[in-house]
Amino acid sequence: MSPRPHNPAAREGSADALEEYLLNLTRRRFFGSVAGSLGAGLGGVALAQLMGSRAASAAPVAPDAKSVLANLPHYAPKAKRVIYMHMEGAPSQLDLYDYKPHLVDQFNKELPSSIRNGQRITTMTSGQTSFPVAPTVFRFDRHENNEGGMMLSELLPYTGSVAKEICFIHSMHTQAINHEPGITFFQTGSEQPGRPSFGSWMSYGLGSGNKNMPSFVVMITQGKGNMQALSARFWGSGFLPSEHQGCRLRAGRDAVLYLRDPDGVTREDRRRMLDLVGEINQEEFATSLDPEVQARISQFEMAYRMQMSVPELTDFSDESEQTLEMYGPDVRTPGSFAANCLMARRLAQRDVRFIQLYMRGWDQHGNLPNELRAQCKDVDQPQAALIKDLKRLGLLDETLVLWSGEFGRTAYSQGMLTKTNYGRDHHPRCFSLWLAGGGVKPGISYGKTDDYSYNIVENPVEVHDLHATMLHLLGMDHKGLVYRAQGRDYRLTDVKGDVIKQILA
Hints:
Helix content: 25-40%
Shape: globular
Number of strands: 17
Oligomer: single chain
CATH superfamily of the largest domain: Alkaline Phosphatase, subunit A
CATH topology of the largest domain: Alkaline Phosphatase, subunit A
Strand content: 5-15%
């Protein structure tokens, strides 16, 4: 078979070149291409913006390409963007947020079987013959909020200073009991790999707020404790066009890999190259209807624009000393949580839709008191500064901030228990997280656990409920944000999820 000519004039003799090409496709590829193109509405819009009116007018667009997205947002949003701080490894709610003072009297006593109630536990503690209660070693202090005050660990004094801005949820629960599926579930709404992440769904539904920056940005901080693997699929686009995947900003000189021009290549050279490659890709899309071709064009153009926008983004020289001091002593260390929190605020100022911060090292099966103290020292001041800074700039009301791990920790000790040292196993039955800004009620607590922080006794919240609520605040009905792939419609919330109306401002 001779290669397909790139010159449109070379195909003018054909009555219907597109039909001819599709007839030569296998049945499987044909239906796969068409199914993919039906959900590529934003891709068509992006193509028009990137390649200009001439190129866009030549591109065939599937008849139903815009049908899903035509009415988005569904209603006026409270939030324009999300900053999601994920504490990889699952912080202990008992030692940070869920105050259980009576457990002091239960030290080393067996967790009642009526509390466990036959619930599954991990293989890491299933072999234990005893499940001794481990009260926290940390003091809890009362912080003023918009209710009767909030009790927080002594490890979080800065976070306590913004308690009036925070909505705590103490009744979260999840299906997953191990880290990989737990993180996957929180990021994608499914324990199974291959689904689009929350940030990808948001990019798909709302598009970009800044043509010079990706709509979805990811930053990772290395913690001090046991760290689980972080797979790029956690911020992947799954079956959505790949232009909606997260763009990772790295610490150091090259924040985005391969963004710099090679030696001897000027910006003008790069522009001419992109124009030529864009024409070739445009012709490829005209025959294949593959949305990934659109994504390729979009990503090339975004990389070109980011050559100017990213260096300016990562340069903190325009920040005042007062601002830098607010984020803490590590703010000048690239990749630190402090630096990434400040970067998150700068990205919010630039209308990036979804900003994902990962903080690794919260997997404390042993030596919890020492490791937790170190982790909290790294995150407490920066995350509070982020809230204060967003509010100072008038951005908090339109920015939804989420802080969470993938599940909670057990009331009983894993391994040896002493008065000063213990570990905690995974616990999906209940845990705490918090939200701020973006249309949630500030300074409140929602949900309640039993005396052991083992079971939920009031207002349970599942991951799909959280996702539904966040989408609601962003102006989207979670049941209406869908994408057809592999013969059926998918959504972030799968087949369930209810908006938590009690926490809405």
